[in-house]
Amino acid sequence: MLETIMKKKNLFIRIAIGFILGIFIGIILPEFSIATKVVGDVYLKLIKMMIVPIIFVAVAGGICNIESTEDLKRIGFKTVGLYVVMFVLSCIVSLIVAYAIRPGKDVVFTNPPVFEQEITNPSISDFFINIFPDNPIMAMAEGKILPVIIFTILFSSAIVMSGEKGKPVLDFINSLSTIFFKLLEFVMELSPIGVMSLMAFSVSKYGLGIFSALGKYIITCYIACILTYIFAMCLPLFLYTKMGIVKLTKSMYKVWLVTLSTTSSAATLPTSIKVSMEDYKAPEGITKFTLPLGCTINMCGGACSFSCLAVFVSDFYGINLSFKEIVTLIFVATLINMAAPGIPGGGIILGASFLSILGLPFDLMGPIAAFYRLLDMAFTSLNVTGDLVANLMIAKSEKQWDVSMINE
Question: What φ, ψ does residue 115 adopt, rounded to 5°?
Answer without folding.
Answer: -110, 115
